[in-house]
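Standup notes
- DV: blocked on the single-chain target, sequence here:
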Amino acid sequence: MKIAIIGGGLTGMSAAHVLAKAGHSCTLYERDDSLGGLAGSFRVNGVYLEKFYHHLFTSDRTMVRLIEDLGLGSDLVWNPTVTSTWYVNRIFRLATPLDVIRFKPLSLVNRLRLGSLAIIPRFVRDWRKLEEITAKEWLIKWGGRQVYEVVWYPLLRNKFGAYADEVAAVWFWNKLKLRGGSRGKGQAEHLGYLVGGFGRALEAFEARLRDLGVDIRLSSPVERVVIENGRATGVVSNGQREDFDLALVTTAPEILLRLAPDLPPDYRERLGRIKYLANACLIMKLKRSLSTTYWLNINDPNIPFVAVVEHTNMQRPDEYGGHHLAYVSRYMDPNDPYYAMSAEELFQAYLPHLRTVFPEFSPDWVETLYAWRERYTQPVVGLRYSQIRPPFRTPVQGLWLCCMAQIYPEDRGMNYAVAYGEKVAAEILESGGA
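- DV (later): unblocked, structure below
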């Protein structure tokens, strides 16, 4: 078969890998000038750094397998990290059970209940029941209202905004399960990272695809999927049509709706019910470290970002020329004014709040600012999400969809981007591409 794959993130790359190895002719279209999607990288002091913060959990076996298959396994390191929370004008370390016991904003009983939420998710056997209740209801049931209001609700609100009360328990359960399952000696969380950046894996993966004969077309956005007589017959990119036997779209459903206006009305309505949040990520290259925390959750509604992730508290600063690197992340609707801000504008808007959280922080610590933004970064997983989650095969013959909105009950991430890319390719092969 001659196959068009639209979207050069890890899902599209992984699908192309499987399909090309099976002997099919694959053309991979990517709008940007490099592959990787949300895992895409740029260089800082000559070393790859992800545009949006990334790490691996110990359960991310599919991505680990890919890294090993690409010959980079010896450079995958697992380091203990510190998670903390900013609450009521103070940073509280919450990296280990002992830290939780010391978390004074909660009563002793509620500290124990908070700690239990690192264990309870491991014993959930039927996640489908969690589709029927909100994260709020589930967290209050197991942790109590004080734990919810102090710890969890501020995070839900800062991430999902107006959608905070709609998020299903199944989404939060999976987050807690992942983090709880990545704890090592002393119950500290251990996270994986590829020395030199995950961009090295993308670079090696791209070379692998080219060796398999995959036609990779960068800076080539697809403008339309051609549908004729109920079948996908080609794509239009840069104003040129090319015929294909099959098209696999790995972008957000909303983009598929624009690419294929001839989709059946009921299917269009189903895709249209899937909501996505956008993200703007400010990266600061600093002369000094902000703190000893890797992941700092911001539990304050007056601060306009949800987290500060100091990458060089997981990786050594000397790998980046001695500089310290910190991400400042904000999720939002795409019409939010912050979404259109430049790196300097974001920094100026955040500066008073950074000084609140890190009193010693000074602008002269900053060497360079970077800003990256992406419209489709987090699907809003509401109640009974499985009823609107689309299958890989669309109602149009020869047209397939595989994107982060289908990763469920798991949540998005490099591991599942690869796993689902392989999964859709296997289903295409099994079906003969119909």
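- Follow-up: The mean pLDDT is 95.
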